Amino acid sequence: SSILTTTTKMINEEPKQPAQPVASTSKKPPKAMVLEEKNEEEASEGQEPSEGQETPNDSAETFQIAWEWLDTARVILTKELEQCKDEDQQAKLSFQFSDVLSSLGQLGLETDNVQSAKDDLELCLKLRQEVLPAFDRTIAETHFFLGIAYQLNNDLTQALAEFDKAKKIITKILEDSSVSAGVQHQLKNIMIELETKVAETQQILTGVDENNQESVKAALSELLDSKPKPVAPPKEVVVRDMGVFGCGKKRARTTPNSENSEPNENLDPSTKVQRVE
What we know:
InterPro entries: NASP-like, Tetratricopeptide_SHNi-TPR_dom, TPR-like_helical_dom_sf. One of its GO terms (molecular function) is histone binding. The chain is mainly α and about 280 residues long. Helix content is about 60%, strand content about 0%. The protein is built from eight helices and no strands. Helix 1 (about 5-10) packs across helix 3.
């Protein structure tokens, strides 16, 4: 595959001189490789592979070798970029470094090390955008693989954004009549794969939205079902005016009592208030 050209060359070509020992890298081999090797060793005990058949252990070993080569290249190029002062040489080193990061990112996707792949591809995209034209096909390729990394990391909105950027670049390249037929054929195949990834991501995103809506509806329904019944209003209660100090108010009679119509001698006729003896 043309995608892993850098990796293939680095694996197949023997170094002209013995490689010097390199300081330990900042990153460790992908966990999937180590786990895969252990599981395959246990599963392959007592089984003889048929001639010409590639064993799972061979696949894990290939990934491990590729990672070691690429990670060594990462360390070397990082040091050279830090020490380089010439701008033209820096651009060349950045381009080489971006190729290494692209291969590391794709290797991370193959071995389910999504976070590591995403980090490598993000740095790869940054370097390529600095040294390459805006509509270079390798930038479109980086957007494509970065979109896959975002999709696997459940960042679906960002994945769609990366796929859309890749589509725009490829569409722009296909509009150029000077592009060879072979390149056009490759780009059209990539465009088909892009459309498939976009549809797949949109379907996942739609499913997530529907699940969220169903969860909200279910929670609302449960809340309504458990809502307490309205409290009945209290019965009418007669409120007695207790006055300012709590004593009941006395009302003056408008008509005299028929049984005691005669005036009371103990009453003051001017005030009609009973005297206190």
